[in-house]
Amino acid sequence: MGPILVAQTPLTDATTTSTAITLNSGTNGANVVDNAVNTYISLSSSGTCRIDLGSAKTIKGYALSNTTETGFNPSSWRIEASNSANSGYVTLDTRSGNSWEQQGSRKFFNLTNTTAYRYYRIVNTTSSQKMYLAEAELFEDFSISGSVFLDYNLNNKKEVTELPVVGTKVWLKSLAAADPVATRTTGLTGAYQFSGSELDGLEIFTVTAKPSLNLQPRTEPMPQSGLSFPALAADGSYLFSNVLANQYGIGGVINFGFLPPTTTAAAAQLLEYPNLITNAANGTFGVSDTSDNAFLKNHPNTKYFSLTNSHPELYSNVTGYATGTNYTYQSGNYGSSGFLWDEGKYLVTDFLGTVFLETAGPNLGLKGILNNMSYGWRVSTGATTGAWNDRFLAVNGSGQQDSSMNAVIFADTVSLAAGNTYSMGFFGKSANKWQQGASVAKPSVVKYFVKRLSTGDTAAMGSITVEPTTSDATDSINFGWNKAFTDFIAQYNGDYGVYFLVTSSDIAGNDAYFDNFFLKKSSYKISGRIFNDANGLTNDLVDGTLISSLTNNPLYAYLLDPSDNHILAQSPVQADGSYVLFAPEYGSYNVAVSTKKQMNGSVFSAATADNWSFTGSNTGIGNLLGQLLNTIASKVGVTPLSILTDITEVNFGFQRLPMSYNRTKNISGAPVKGTNYSLSDLPLQGSDMEDNNGVQANWNNRAAVINTLPTNGFILKYNGNVVQAGDTVYNYNPALLSVTPGNNTPAGTLQTVFTYSAVDAAKQSSTAPATYTVNFTQPLPVELISFTATVNNECAVTLEWASAEEKNFRHFVVERSENGRDFTAIATVTATGSYSDYTYKDATAASGKSYYRLKLVDHDNSIAYSGVRTAVLSCNSTLQVFPTQTNDLVQVQGTQAGSVIRVMDMSGRVLMQETAKGATAQISLANLPAAQYLVGIIRDGHAEWVKVIKQ
Question: Which of these CATH numbers, 2.60.120.260, 3.10.20.310, 1.10.3720.10, 2.60.40.420, describes 265-521?
Fold first, then answer.
């Protein structure tokens, strides 16, 4: 039988921190396998380091790490192996003149070994030069492999149901060279593999997967220590390097999860971008890496440009391009603070996966790309194609608040036709990352100006906001980009200048990313009207008086992106109640109305004036959703029937809510339980601006909602029927409303209160319910001062109580219960007058807990109840029950002829009962479910119980 073959995980170190290390000179050999770059061994010239793996293993590759100290890097060495500790070594690999890219780094080397050895030895062959070696790793499987798949559940693990991605190109690339070391294209299983010979000599390198079709990486995290890289921030690249983090634990299986981006290139092309800054390359800021192999070495993979030079790949169709004096293009040297540290700087850039780390030194890393400050880093990719080859504009706002042309990012010239409505805007993303904290997580404001060049007249001017990201997820590669649109009407034919300015009232918080600037003729028009809809939808229409404001609060209609609720366009509601919105592109949107003035690009917030409410809306005419569909939705979805169709009559209704008024009724005497007290002489009252001009009046023949029921146990009735909380009384008649003291109304009660709300013709109620109070001049007659239950030494319960003033009072009924719910009268005690003391002894109480209460009865037969008191009896008993755990039969001893034997559940419910015929009896529990039960006898008025467990 041959050896058992065990599959090895690629790049798994065969050494451990307990592997035996022998040095021919020196100490601390364990430093070479402790997975740390700040500890090391020193090998003199010809010095050796022997590694004992404990058993023979076939090592096919290895890695050495230099230290953070300069001057003693491994330069020349020999790798030997043997199955004898001190003899028989053969040479597996010889290296000379090796150089290192970084200190504290590791480098991989391939072996063509096919023999299993127990001992491996590193020999320093550098002439007259000692070697510092921080780490040595030995690999049985020296390769890198993985798969590319559709990661639907975003857990970065390929599930059976997740399909492979075929035809994806994967690079193995050293960051020290422009061209990849090797490339692979995934096959039918989505798999790829790089061999040990391709890994040979690599030190700082990446494995990078280029998205195919419209897919992009979504789940591969950056393995960098000390950086809280978002879990969903897939960047399509995996970095091998000890420059910024200890990666000794990284294996050689690298998987990439792909999904479609938030905004695909195909969808972005629907925005007919004419001659603005991003018109080239389907709306991107240009492309690089067109050959799929020519990586750019200069960080961060940007084709740096100067406005004085010609760059057709960026601005092939731009005419009249200009920048203001308050913005300066940031050239290739980002210095120690990053591109966007200085106010008024901007650049155009893109990132190819995490290969953007190519020239980031140990003190810069991610934080050195755009902002090297310790409190945050700024990394992003464009909105059009997601993570790949998509350039975008990064701007640090100038802080200028003026509207002069000196403060613009850029300007462009466009030709417009008179009478057309144009939509313009961009995709935007605030650069205030989540790691920078809330203090700078503020919206970036973009001012725009459209001027007629021949006269200087302003055709449009306003602001669009770019909202900050709020979480790790929205801050990852393709999240957080929002469409920011506006619209205007060109009054004249001719050339117009378009200008954009980024500004902020704060130094921190005016940085933003921009992509896909566009200006195009609006696609279709949405119009409608706003009504004071006094009757709501009771007539199945949104109608009434046309309004433009709620009280003194102007109304605004907004066009919303249905995916994220951002505002794309807006229109003030005119005096005749009308509004007009223009869709920037053919598609679906939401329309909503608010009294809150909001900026395009911000997240919509609904608001109404005090005491106004929304009654309903309808979807209009020409809407794919249907015509005149009455709803109560405050947002209406709109989709035109065709590309040439406008949508009209998207109407909204609002109405003022009614008001309710407090009422107080006084009744002479004391409340009598069971007696109905009519409330006819003090009707419910309300008012409504639409229904009765806001005059406080009796709410007769209208509707009212009973919000809360009367307090102190009173019962509210309408037309003899008990009213429940939330009930609506229609066609209210005051003569039919009454209150009645109930059985639970406590003694001493003087008052009861309930609340109600007036309901208007639109079937909406007031938001502030009114209180209706009923006062009595005298309380319910009897009030107990005290009530106690105690156990005496005669195995009986003594009840004692004392009364306060007794008026028209007849007697007390003593009631007892075994379970606290079902009470039985056991005695009647006649009242003796106010402030009397009473005593009653219960000699018939059963062993265990008993519950007692007093029923208080007046001469008019009205009643009230005291609180419940408990007493526990534990008396000597001759009762014997065995066994106490049984599946069936139970023996009962201590009975006598005529004794009643009962079986109860733990809630006191009698399940079985029979009469004993002598001193012993037998009970079968076979038909009862497994549980705890009480088995006992009742004789001479006393009960004795024993707990039995039915198994």
Answer: 2.60.120.260
Query: Domain 880-950 adopts which CATH fold?
Result: Immunoglobulin-like (2.60.40)
- Nearest Cα neighbor of 727 from 770, 757, 693 is 757
Residue 288's pLDDT is 41
Pairing between strand 900-905 and 910-915? antiparallel
Mean pLDDT of the chain: 78
CA geometry: angle 201, 206, 211, nearest 5 deg = 140
Q: pLDDT tens-digit profile of 605-619?
A: 999 988 899 999 999
Q: Residue 221: what pLDDT?
A: 39
Which residue is listed with tokens 């309710």?
Answer: 660
- What predicted TM-score, i.e. pTM, was given to this entire model? 0.55
Both structure tokens of 571: 């229109």
869 or 779, which is more confident: 869
CA dihedral 878, 879, 885, 889 (to 10 degrees): 130
Looking at 632-678, which runs of residues are DSSP E strands?
635-638, 652-656, 659-661, 663-667, 677-678
Distance CA(663)–CA(899), nearest Å, equals: 63
Q: What is the pLDDT of residues 863-876, one digit of tens each?
A: 777 888 988 876 65
Which of the 8 DSSP states describes residue 321? Answer: -
Backbone dihedral angles phi then psi of residue 734, each to the nearest 5 degrees: -55, -30
Helix residue spans in 475-541 (DSSP H): none
Tell me, rounded to whole angstroms, the distance of Cα 272 from its chain centroid. Answer: 35
Residue 873's nearest CA partner among 818, 935, 939 is 818
What are the beta bridge partners of residue 682? Answer: none
Q: 148 CB contacts (<8 Å, ≥6 apart)?
A: 164, 165, 168, 170, 186, 190, 192, 209, 255, 256, 258
Spelled out in words, what is the top-level CATH class assigned to the domain 784-873? mainly beta
Mean pLDDT of 731-737: 97
The answer to whether 467 and 426 are in contact (CB under 8 A) is no
Separation CA 754–CA 664 (nearest Å): 11
Task: Judge whether 20-139 and 144-259 match in fold.
Answer: no
CA 485 to CA 566: how far, in whole Å?
Answer: 10
pLDDT of residue 98: 95
